[in-house]
Amino acid sequence: MRARFAAFLAGVAGLLGATSAGASTVTEPVKVWIAAEPDAAGGSLFVGYASADSALTLRYELVGEKRGSGGRSSVSQGGRVAVAPGLAARLSQVSFGRLGESDHYSIHLRVYDGEDLVAETALDK
């Protein structure tokens, strides 16, 4: 039964662009996503979000890296968040200045219940 439930969670997460791994005490699916938005200065803002079907307290890591002709930039943020049932919780944000044509970036969001990874997603360009 537990294996079937884990497969169900992985399927739901896959539909949302996330993956689920490891055994967890979370019994409801946790959904995560990264929204890319322009910022007021003309750069790029990447915001991590999570939602769940029940109230949970989770831990997250949001890591961003930009590489280009101007060099390399890396940002890592993390913390704890209380997620209310059915509502999107804004976790954190990573901002880069203007992205040039030759610039590449990767943004990774991982969410944990205790030490167990319950959802993750990434954006790469």
TrEMBL record:
It comes from the Bacteria. InterPro entries: CsgH_dom (IPR047726), Curli_assembly_CsgC/AgfC (IPR053722). Coiled coil: none annotated. The keyword Signal applies. Keywords: Signal. Residues 1-23 form the signal peptide. This is Curli-like amyloid fiber formation chaperone CsgH. It comes from Novosphingobium anseongense.
